[in-house]
Amino acid sequence: MATTLFISLLAMGGLGIFFATFLAVASKKLKVEENPIVEKILNELPQTNCGACGYAGCLALAEKMAGSEVAVDTCIAGGQEVADKIAELLGVESNKMGRMVAVVLCNGGDIEAVKNAVYRGEKTCAAANLTNGEKACIYSCIGYDDCVTACQFDAITMNNNGLPVVFYDACIGCGACARACPRDIIEMHPEDHKLFVYCRNKDKGAVARKICKVACIACGLCVKDCEIEGGIELKANLATVNYEICPQDEKPTGRCPTKCILFGKEEENTKSAVMEALMKKAG
Amino acid sequence: MNLKTFKHGIHPLYCKELTARKEIERAPIPKTVTVPLQQHLGTPCQPLVKKGDVVEEGQKIGDVVTFVTAPVHSPISGKVKDIERYPYPVGGKVLSVVIESNEEVKEWPENNTGLDMDLITPQSIRDAVREAGIVGMGGAAFPTHVKLSPPKDKKIDTVIMNGCECEPFLTSDHSLMLEFPEKVLWGMKVIMKAVNAQKGDRGIEENKLDAINIIQEVVRDISPEIEVVPLETKYPQGAEKMLIKATLNRDVPMGKLPLDVGVVVNNVGTAAAIYDALKFKKPLIERIVTVSGNGLTEPKNLILRIGTSFKEAIENCGGMIEGGERVVINGGPMMGVAQTDLDVPVIKATSGITVLTGDEIKPKIYHPCIKCAGCVEACPVNLMPYRLGDLARLSRVDEFKRWGGLSCVECGCCSFVCPARRPLVQWIRVGKVKLREEDKPGSA
Fold first, then answer.
1. How many beta-carbon contacts under 8 Å exist across A and B?
2. Least CA distance to A52: which residue of chain B?
3. Does residue A55 sit in the same domain as residue A122?
4. Helix axes of B268-279 and B172-179: crossing angle, nearest 10 degrees
5. pTM
6. Domain range spanning residue A65?
7. What digits encode the pLDDT tens for the residues B293-344?
């Protein structure tokens, strides 16, 4: 009995000592030098792995930043604050970042747009876009919530008109919603863009007018009213703001017959304002 | 009868009795036609006419100088009313020429030298086929002259004519074989000459026994080197790779073409169009379309001009049955695309228009996958649809590609058999779109 105890104790103890020595040696010999700055940068980053920077998550970006391969302001989600902190860590200067905001360029909701079919398939925009969707306009918002699902920052919601609304104050400009939209209705714009044409319809005016109350009918009034030559142009039956030329305080004269070109509408969509409006309508 | 077939596949309700063995009817010439300038895979055509031009039936109205394309011809005589982007039955909008008819009908004189097998050369066949704007009429609309130009280092030994028509409801190929078997066989002989093949096979599903008999008789008369192969009635027997497997027992590897195993597959409709192109110098301006379905008053096999609107085609069949929802599909219920606008035109690849009633497509709520592997069992290209569907849904496109998502033929067998009613093929199609977007240069 005592022998069995002795042998097993000796065997297990021996094994323990052997592996402990092995691990101790290995940890010294095979040590991987890790850049301590990476972890510090990672702690500053939002760590939501939103993918807006184009890298496979925050850790991958932190490694690139530590190696000075990318600029310190690459993290779009973090914005100016994070860029400044990382610049301090790395001892470089950070540039002034412009904030980007997602803009939904379609106003043709359930009320305004004509529907000419019933869709019974999988309720996602990507799947519905394989057919032409329910609305007669094939450039319109499909109205399921691919963009809402894509947003990791709760900065977009569907209103009771079947259209997505971006919370102007909550959007961090990662662009996930714009990538999720199969019809490219959501665009990323710098904060100082205030004038938008809320329509993507490229049909002729007569066709567009029939299928949606708020479509751009390419009448050209806004083009004529624009104070600067070429500030607004008609491209493929669609008024297009040329942001490089058009001054940022350029306001349309309100002559737009379908009210699809609007100024400064986005700023009103703060989270509290939108939620309040939604609650009021829901009663 | 010992019937050949492929592994896997399904047996849907075929519903072909609505139009099977009904005589082909010629529809009246439409008042206006909308002719899309892209009806084929490849480069879209540029318009060759202007608004206000007077065009003649069969006049070329669109072409472009590239190899993988097919010119477009005016299906009726009349005046060009508009050239603008119009809805298209495969989805989206395409630049189209609208022609208003002047109700003249052209006679196509016979061109006797056209089918003299000693006189025609493979190159002259290819030129004639391209000039006539012929594309694969089974549905994919791949330009036929490209198919008839195999690379020098690839030897083609067999030409297969596809007369399976496995899609439920459709009977256009079936009625074509019943009424014009000579056209099909001559077309086939021309194709064999063009690719220099020694052997010809024809695959026909055994539910079309009458067609098999007729074709066999004509084969005995004209060309004994052609063999008629009766195949089991199964879906998707008419898919290119399945057909090659069934008739020749050759496997086309993933990502390869039938050319790589020495085979050229053509639809019977394409063969008949080639016959017309050589014999009458008549371009592809009309085709047989099955207008069928339970939502229709009087289902028919119609000869329709390209560019006829779906609405007019349906009116030619007595219109839709009143009341309730109707689903109009370009093609058949398995692979067709549901339409949202009935002004879309019939194009070269429209083999059928199916009108279903709302009850037949009751919304189905789907349930979690129970891992029964029914879809794996049904998939004719040996994929794992349950897995691909989930990967596509989660946008995991790299894995989607690794699991062979791109070789999916979108036949719909997986969704058909799924006991949890998961819309697998729809997810896979979305996955393919996502993958293509990701592969585009310049995207993150």
1. 56
2. B444
3. no
4. 50
5. 0.84
6. 36-90
7. 888 888 989 999 999 999 999 988 888 888 777 888 888 888 888 888 888 9
